[in-house]
Each structure stands twice: as structure tokens, then as C-alpha cells.
Amino acid sequence: MSSNSLSLKQLALQKFKRNFWGVFSFYFILLVGFISVFAYLLAPDDSQYANQMHLSIHSKKPGFKVEMLIIPSQLKVNQSALDKVFFGKKNTDTEIPISDYNIEGKTLMYTEYASDGLKGVEKIIQINPGDNLSPYVKSKTFYFGTDKYGRDLLSRVLVGARISFFIGFVAVFISLIIGVFMGSLAGYFGGKVDAVIMWLINVTWSIPTLLLVIAITLALGKGFWQVFIAVGLTMWVEVARVVRGQIMSAKEMQYVTAARALGYNDYRIITKHILPNIMAPVIVISAANFAAAILIESGLSFLGIGAQPPMASWGAMIKDHYNYIILGKPYLAIIPGLCIMSLVMAFMLIGNALRDALDVKG
């Protein structure tokens, strides 16, 4: 039995490896996962939420370069290295875009950056004589340009990947726990238990998903984890229906009858015998739910009830800049839109590849 099970797994793995788009999507999702975890190590702006604003250089095109004057803060911030890696640096220094500067003794004279050919304000600060200029003035390149608040768009995209990626995991995890539990009860016991659970499933399914998520979000409050929970609580019905149908057919199989004859209790029969044999369609629907969760979160952020500012989110970035499409700077909304599209497409392609690979009859 174990060798047969192993051979089926190997067959499924071989079929999956032959699917180019499935393998490509798998590695792409791994890449996005790596970026999500280590976003602050990769982002040019490693401040918390990549929220360093420079209003004088707002809405600049990709590849824009500027000299940045960094004035060190006298405040001391106690922050561990681990906290900086995963949650960003608590930056208290002042960054000022400048177009020109000059040093005379202890005096640093600079001209603030001004766009549209205007001349910026000239200011003076005192520095210690003999100091190296590199801690004060640095050249900075914005590879994706800047948003309407002058923040680095590339850094916001990298940090925003964290919300879109992890909401899939949290939402699918919640939907699997509730959906597998409810579907197992309905499919295995049937009768009144099945009728009550199916009534609950039909009522939940009859409510538009976005409206249900909005209601749950408003009840739990606006925030990061509230959105994750709200999306997860709306996606369990599809899992429950699939599990219910699979268990209704599986419980009549001979191995279930043999398990009952051996005196095993219902809990063991469901968890040890039935569920391991019906997980293939559940895995496939979970991949589709990943994509659905990302789209729902993006829609909520676009409506303003998802992740709240200054937290970076792809949906919120589209909301902030969708009107720039007709103002000659469409990339401010197109870049995060392409990120959403590519990640959703990757999950849909890997779902299709898993469906083909786990189809033993095929």
C-alpha cells in the first residue's frame, strides 16, 4: 500500500514537472514569497512601510535621480536588527532633495530641489569641520519613479507584496479549517446535520462576497489582520461544498466499511482514512482561493477599507494613482496593477497544473 501511494505521488510530481507554466508559476510564487519576507532588505527605502516622503519630487518618472541631503537626528532609537529586517527601520533622519550645495568651513549651504525649472530655497546648516561629506549628501535613484507623495515607488511595491502574498496564506488557512470541518460533518453524518450546514452554506453563498467582507471588516474594525480574517471567513463555503461532495462518495468505499468493521470511531475514519484520499480537489481549490483572496484584498484596499495608510498595499497604490492614468503618468497605477495580475495569474496557472497532475485517472 505504501509503495503504491509513493508511486502515485511520484507520478503526480512527474506530471507537474512536465507542465512548464506550472513550474514557472511555482518559482515565481517562491520569488514573491522571498521578496515579501525580506522586502526591507531589498527595498531602497528601508524605513517602516517605505514611507519616506519628499513632496518636492512627487510623481517623477522611472529612473529619476536627485542629490539627497541627509541631516542626522539627535534622537536615539532602540531597535533590534531583527526588527529592522522584518518591520523596517525607524528612520528619524531628515532627508531633503537638493539641486546644489557648497561647503565653506563649518557651513553647508544648499539649494532645495524645485521642479518645473524653478529655483529652490537656499538654506544653511552647520557641520563639523573635517567631516566627510558622504554621510550628508548622497545620490539617490528612483528606479520606478516616485508616487504623488514623493515616496520611492519601487520600495512601496516591494513592501506592498507582503500584504497581497500573506493574505492568501492566512485566508486559505482559515477557509481550510472551517471548510474542511463543516464539509466533513455534512458529508459524513448527513441527515439533519447536513441540512443545517447546507442551509448555512447557501445563506453565506447568497451574499455577495465583497459586501460580506465589508460587513465583517466594519464589525472587526479597519486594519491589517482584520482584513485577513474577514477574507478567510468568506471563502470557506467553496471548500465545504467540495469536501462534502467528496466525503459523500468516499464514505461508501470499501476501505471505509472495513474501518467501521474494525471498530474505529468516526473521528479516526474521517481524519485518517477519508480526508487523505480526497485532498487533491481541496488543494486545487485552495490555489484558486489564493488568487481570489488577493483580488478581494486589492478591492478592499481600493475602496479604502483594507490595509490602512501608511501601510503599503498594491490595491491602495492603485486607488491613490488611478486618476494619474489620464494625467500622463499611468505607470503609477499600472505597475501595482501588473503586480496583482502577475501574482493572481501565477496562482491560477499552478492551480491548473495541480489539477492535471493530481488527476490519477488522466
TrEMBL record:
The chain crosses the membrane at residues 20-43, 163-189, 196-218, 224-243, 274-296, 331-354. It is a multi-pass membrane protein. It is found in: Cell membrane. Keywords: Cell membrane, Membrane, Transmembrane, Transmembrane helix, Transport. Gene3D superfamilies: MetI-like (1.10.3720.10). It comes from the Bacteria. Residues 161-351 form the ABC transmembrane type-1 domain. This is ABC transporter permease. It comes from Gaetbulibacter aquiaggeris.
